[in-house]
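Worked Example 4.2. Consider the chain below.
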Amino acid sequence: MGQPEQPEPRADGAGPFTTRRTWNRPEGGTVVWESRPARRRGVLSVSGPGEGAVHAATAEPAGLTRLRRLNAVASAAFVVGGALFALGAALSQFGSGDAMESAAVYFAGGLFFNTGGYVSLLQVLNAPRHTADGGRLVTSRWRWWGYEPMRLDWLSTFVLFVGTLVFGVNLLDSFLQGLSVQQTNRLIWTPDVIGCVLFLISGHLAFAEICHRSWPCLHRRSLGWWIVAVNQLGSVLFMVSAVAAFTRPGTGDLVSEGVANWGTLTGALCFSVGGVLQALERP
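Applying the procedure from the previous section yields the following C-alpha cells:
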C-alpha cells in the first residue's frame, strides 16, 4: 500500500492573497507559515500534539545571514532618512528661511528613503520560501529584481518603493526657481501627494499581510504590527503635511506652512522610530 495522501494545507489571507498556510503534521500538531515572520525572521510556527506553539528558525544559516544584513540596511536607511526629513522640516520652521538649505536636506533624506524602499523589496525577493509540505524554509538564489504581484508582501514593498521614487521627483523639482503657482502645484505638490497616497496604500497592504484579512486588526503583542502601525501613522502625517502645502492660486501662500512643516517633522520621526523597531525584528 502506498503512503496516505497528505491533506492540502489550509490557506488564509486577504482577498486573492495567501499570507498564512497551515499544514497538519503526520505525527500530530501543525506547521504554520506566515508571510512576515518567514521573510523577516526566517521562522515557522511548529506545534506538536498537546504542545504550545514553538517558533523555530528553520531557514539555512546562509539565508538567516542574508536576512540579517538586509534588515540592518533597510532599518538604518529609514532611521537616517526619517531623521534628515525631520531636520529639513525643522530648518523650514525654525531656520533662516533659506528654501535651498531645506531642499538639500530633504533630498539627502529622500535618497535614504529610496534605499530603504528598495532593500525592503529585496527582503521579499530573497526571503526563504516554504517547501511544498511546509516542513522547512529554503533559501533560493539571490535576485536583484522580480515580478510577483500575487504576493501581498511583494505588492506592499513595491508600492512603497515606487512611493519613494515619486517623492524623489518632488524633491528634485523643489530645487527649481522662479516657478509660477500653477507650476509649483503641478511639479512639487502633485508628486508629493501621489507619494503620500502610495505610502498609505503600502501601509494598508502591510496591515492586510499581518492581519490575514482586508481590514486592519489590533495585535499589540506583535512587533511587526507595531512597526506597520508606526509607519502608517507617519504616512498619515505626511499626507496632512502635503495637503497643508498646497499653494493657493489667489494669494501664492501655502494653506498652512506651520502644519506642513510639523506634519513632515512628526511623520518623519515616525519613520525613524519604525526603523529602530525594524532593527529588532531580525532572525
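The chain has a mean pLDDT of 87. Residues 61-94 form the longest helix (34 residues). Compare this with Example 4.1 before moving on.
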